[in-house]
Amino acid sequence: MLLEDIRLAHEDLERLEQGISDRTAEAGKQIRDRLARDHQIAKFLQRIQEQSKHLRDLYESTEARNAEIQSISTGDPFDKFYKELNEIKSFHRKYPNEPVENLERAYKRRPPAEGESPTAEVDNMFTGEEAWGRFLDLTSFHEDYLNLPGVKRLTYLQYLDTFFLLTSPNYAVKKESKRTNNYFGYVGRLASYLEDFMRRTRPLEDVDKSFAAFDREFDRLWKANDLPAWQVEALVGPAAPGVEDREGLWCADCGKDFKNENVYSAHLTGKKHIKATQAKNSTADLESAVAQTAGLPNAQRLKERAIAEREYRVSSLASALSSVRSATRINVERRQGMTDRERQQELDALFAESNDFVPTGDGGGDSEEGSDSEEKIYNPLHLPLDWSGKPIPYWLYKLHGLGVEFSCGICGNFVYMGRRAFDKHFSEARHIYGLKCLGITNTALFRDITVIEEAQRLWEKLQKEKKVEATKQDTVQMEDAEGNVMPEKVYYE
Hints:
Blueprint: H1 2-24, H2 31-60, H3 62-73, H4 77-94, H5 103-106, H6 120-123, H7 139-146, H8 156-162, H9 175-178, H10 181-201, H11 207-223, E1 236-238, E2 249-251, E3 256-258, H12 261-268, H13 271-294, H14 299-320, H15 322-336, H16 340-354, H17 364-375, H18 394-399, E4 405-408, E5 414-417, H19 419-424, H20 429-437, H21 452-474, E6 477-479, E7 485-487, H22 488-492
Helix pairs in contact: 1-2, 8-15, 10-14, 11-14
């Protein structure tokens, strides 16, 4: 029935709006929770668009709707009722196991099944390096960049600072190398990755509108010949327009800068410049001849436009993701100073924080009490905790002697558990500060001394010995006629 389809569509729209309202009120603790919520809302919005389009089509069929209203309002209403009832019965006899869709529960949040993560959909979208959209993963593109011909080797950190400067005239890849298929594929893959990253991290934004704006801006710059790296004019002499940061003279045939006019004049008569000019002129003549014979625009210019479009797309996307780029650089720099174990511990801690999900349902009080009891750690021996928050094994506790107490009076009677911690504390700031408070400056000689009186007696003894040595060095030695050495005082007596 047409009227029933219209009513069902309106109900579905109301349920979708309620589902979006419920999820908008949620405040996810972790970024993966917020991303999962946003992607669900994006699916609901897409479903609303589809249902609205379907509802509009139903309202546009006025003749069928009027005919159905006429059939209901005239004649015996029970005939129409039993006709619809027989159709429903025949349908269920034909499909006895057909599930019935319950719109009341269709868009409500349901707890995940046993062993299933509530954010499993988002977990499969990102790599470990991306950390659910917080950072970029450009390691494969860095390798592709290093394999390009004629480029300087850059570290990953240097690549993160320069990968988006494709439209700059001072870019490491020269214009001749940009026309290769390897570079064309590299730029295309990089642009596709950044587009996909924006779609995954910003599901509620209209990214297609932003991409269309990038394309319109590129068309305007291309028609105005305002892209510095792809200008048609080959200027020889002064610096090329749009390159204000260059000083001196610029040779477009060789792609070199000259600060001295004499060196530039000598370069024009050199063999390399003449050879480069001839090669460029022959290539241009060949392309123009091919274009004239085929009746098509310059084939090289079309390829340059495709490359320039992808370069401009990468630069625009990188500008839109500037905060993610800076966060990626900080994260890479931080992780380079970590060990493999520290990286794994950080990843495990992040997963542990995100998996703290307690499903709510009937008997919520019992489930909360059960979860509280599960969170309590059984530690009757009061063993030290490891990095995961659990007690270390007892054999490890005995092996390192962590049950033996060592006190240090110089540190304010601070107690150290285990010989290892006790030996290590002599070079720590607490013990060194305690010695300096006693007036002791040479702390290296006071190892294994923990009593204040012993440290003071040893320091006084060292000071006396130091004074005696100083007096001995100040005594003048004399030698008599027989070769006997004696102090000056004894010699004159």
